[in-house]
Structures are given as C-alpha cells and as structure tokens.
Write a structure and sequence with these properties.
Length: 223
C-alpha cells in the first residue's frame, strides 16, 4: 500500500468517525463487512509468490445500541460475514491459516455508528507443504514419490494425449523437492527446455506434454 493510499484511508476513517459521532447514524451490516475486508487487506502476510496469508480471527466492537439492534439477526449475520469473506479472500488470492471466525461484541467506548475491527491468527507457526496445481486441482505432495502421467495408476492423472502414461515424478523427503522426467516421449520442460532432474527450490511452472503444472508451497490444511 502506497503513501497516498494510507493518507486516503486515514482521512476516510477521520471523516466517517466525525460523521458518526455528530449524527449518531445507525451502523449497517454493509459498513461492517467493508471494515472486515479492509482489515484483511491491511494485514496480508506474503509467504511466497502464490501464498498470501490473512488473519482468520476477526473481532468487531460496536456500540451497545447498534449491538442490540443487530442482535435480532443472531448468528446468521456473523455466518454471512464468514461466507462472504471466504468469497472475497478467494477473489483476492488470500488464504486463511485456520478456520475463519467473526465475533461481533458490544463496547461501551464505541459511539452509535462507530466500530473497531481487530484481528489475529488463531494458529501458531504456519506449516507450508509442497503442492502441485494441475488442471484446476490441487495435489499436496506426500512424503516419497508422487507420479504424474496419463495412466490412472499415477498419483496425479493428467488428461492430455501428449502426456506419457508414466511421464514424470516429484519426490519430497520432507526437506527437498525434486522433479524427474521418467523417459517421457514429449519431455518435461521448464522455460521451454527439457529437463531430466531438477530440484524445486521455489515456486515454479513446468510443462508435461502440453499441460502446465504449477509447483508452490501452501498452508497445511487445518482439521
């Protein structure tokens, strides 16, 4: 976020805050959702080219009057925020390190129409696991050898006539990830060049047959 963005965001908070205090306008769900999105945007944590983490525990403090008015909607309001934030995170390429929660609580320090959003991460250190993205599907790598090919006996089956039945493999020993071509007809290519063996030290795209495969690390699934 650039300097002008920070200035504009600060002015927006100041103006909205002054307006709410002066006119005691009622707080609307759309305003809460906008503030929740802003909290995610302001607390991104970039772990790799393909991994942007955001907080998964969000807390909204509002006035007692606004809380009493919105309480009639019960947990459905918070549940709707959770569903909509999942959609927003997907659109932005954000990932949550654990289950997403939204808590709305009353706070006597808040004026009618005002709110304050805070966030945190409810899990400890994030564990990243190697993942292959193939034809719209994600395949977390297991320890050992993961085979790629057209055969249904492969761990990753690729629907591509240019792919050999046993085309390539990816080996993960818990530390190092190694890509190998298995003597395929059309080869395994990186940047247009055929490779035999290659250690994958960071996010990388490679091609088997005519199919693009993306390698990166992503947060380990929770639960």
């Amino acid at each position: 976020m650039g300097l002008l963005d920070n200035v504009e965001r600060g002015l927006e908070r100041a103006v909205n805050g002054a307006f709410a205090k002066t006119f005691r306008s009622r707080l609307q769900p759309l305003e809460i959702f906008s503030a929740l999105k802003g909290e995610l945007d302001s607390n991104t944590r970039i772990l790799s080219r393909d991994t942007i983490l955001v907080p998964n525990a969000l807390r909204v403090r509002i006035s007692q009057a606004d809380f009493d008015r919105l309480r009639a909607q019960g947990s459905s309001l918070a549940n709707q925020f959770v569903a909509d934030l999942h959609t927003y995170a997907h659109q932005q390429g954000y990932q949550f390190p654990g289950p997403l929660t939204v808590a709305i609580v009353p706070d006597d320090s808040q004026s009618v129409g005002m709110l304050d959003v805070t966030s945190s991460t409810t899990v400890g250190d994030v564990t990243l696991v190697p993942v292959l993205e193939v034809q719209g599907q994600s395949y977390p790598l297991r320890h050992g050898v993961t085979t790629i090919g057209r055969s249904h006996e492969c761990d990753v089956t690729v629907n591509d006539s240019a792919v050999s039945k046993q085309h390539a493999s990816v080996t993960w020993d818990g530390t190092t990830v190694v890509l190998r071509d298995l003597g395929s007809t059309n080869g395994t290519k990186v940047d247009g060049q055929r490779i035999t063996t290659l250690e994958l030290a960071g996010p990388l795209d490679f091609v088997v047959g005519s199919t693009l495969i993306s390698y990166h690390r992503a947060p380990k699934a929770v639960g």
